[in-house]
């Protein structure tokens, strides 16, 4: 239970620090979104039964991949 919250919190702390230091909302959205997606993926991976674990991993990959390809790839 601690791992997803730790990852989520770490990414959001980095997001807030960079947002305040650089003054750009991009950092808040970028690190906040990726941290939330990875945190949710890790949380689902921990709590889902063995046969459903690949779905949690694929969901996290899909969320981060779509963001990187769709938003940052422009």
Task: Provide a descriptive summary of the structure in words.
The structure is a single chain. The protein has one domain (2-72). The protein starts with a helix and ends with a helix. It is built from 3 helices and no strands. With 74 residues, it is mainly α.
Short summary:
This protein has 74 residues and is mostly helical. It has helices at 2-22, 25-47, 53-72. It has one domain.
Distance, first to last CA: 36 Å
Global structural class: mainly alpha
Main sheet summary: none
- Estimate nothing, just give the exact number of structural domains: 1
Query: What is the number of strand segments?
Result: 0
From the alpha-carbon coordinates, what is the Rg to the nearest angstrom?
13 Å
- Poorly predicted segments: none
Strand portion: under 5%
Q: How much helical structure, as a percent, in the residues?
A: over 70%
Order of helices and strands: HHH
Mean pLDDT across residues: 92
Query: Overall 3D geometry?
Result: flat
Number of helices: 3
Helix-strand blueprint:
Blueprint: H1 2-22, H2 25-47, H3 53-72
Helix pairs in contact: 1-2, 2-3
